[in-house]
């Protein structure tokens, strides 16, 4: 059962519980980012900037897989912790089981369809004659492991709801180490190139999935597999509640997609390689904010079930302060050490891509300072089951505004317009998010948030 099911509601107690869930969540998100980031490092160093551009073009597909997982997993986690708060454990078990079954079915269907249309998917993602062979080689292997990606990601979320957040660190760390070791062996030592990088990532997700399943099947888990009750209402709730977080995850892929389109038009292939570097670092920032959000959500959902809104207020404040602390850290590193960061992925001898990456990162990183507020506020509404409000924030930030801005600014300011687009998008979204939050408080004056 959730370890925070106690009556102590002091600020020190809540802070301790928040960080107990925050650390595993952020750590897990870092390692999820490292999976693809390590691929980028080894591909960039071991194969070259064109292959690195191909991995970047493939990222929207991987983000889409994770988004489907989050679509169901966040809804499951929210309802599981809500029913834990009401001491209805059997309902929590039914939701947990239904979550795994749905993800497995969706994963298998997605794998089959993706393999059938792999070249069309590659072209849709922006591949050209130069990058197509690399994109197909990379995606073909990633697709085979996509079900394990989805189930492993889901179980990482649910193991925290189960009351064992430390396991998310242990199992995700195991997977990350596997990925790094296999990348070195397959890409550098045996020259399997982009195929080796894809297999390393897929194998690491398989190991992570098996480790989490072992915990729930044979460990001391509170959540257990039971005979599920399939009904439309339960399934609809899982999908509906998870929409804002799925949109947040998918937005990383969609943002990459529209940036790739704009960069292909205004800069070219080396611009795609440069943006690939920026996206790896941007994803690390976004996953940190998502991790803070996921550390906050089970606690807010639980206290929402208890009707304790004072604690919800404190937890939101704590999450926002934590997000700005990380944002300042990432921004500072990007401004002070851009050459060092870029050199992890691209050799300075590849001068065009190297210099483009440095210039783009220093401008793009201003958006790091704001994105956390939008992600946290979206997650806050999701945890309170105010799904529409969370969806509005996620949709504006990750889809509507970024598309409009990337259509307008590059035509006005050229390359600078591309790199500054993230900051403009986050600032406009924050304006809307704060307006939604303020009106929410006005409508619920009896809730001291």
From TrEMBL:
Keywords of the record: Antibiotic resistance, Cell membrane, Membrane, Transmembrane, Transmembrane helix, Transport
GO BP annotations, alphabetical order: response to antibiotic
Cellular localization per UniProt: Cell membrane
UniProt similarity note: Belongs to the multi antimicrobial extrusion (MATE) (TC 2.A.66.1) family. MepA subfamily.
UniProt KW Transport keyword: yes
Record Pfam families: MatE
Transmembrane segments annotated in the record for this chain: 21-42, 62-84, 96-118, 138-159, 166-190, 196-218, 238-263, 269-293, 314-337, 363-384, 396-413
Endoplasmic reticulum in keyword set: no
CC terms in the record's Gene Ontology section: plasma membrane
GO MF annotation, one: antiporter activity
Name this polypeptide is given: Multidrug export protein MepA
Protein source organism: [Clostridium] ultunense Esp
Predominant place of localization: membrane
Bilayer topology: Multi-pass membrane protein
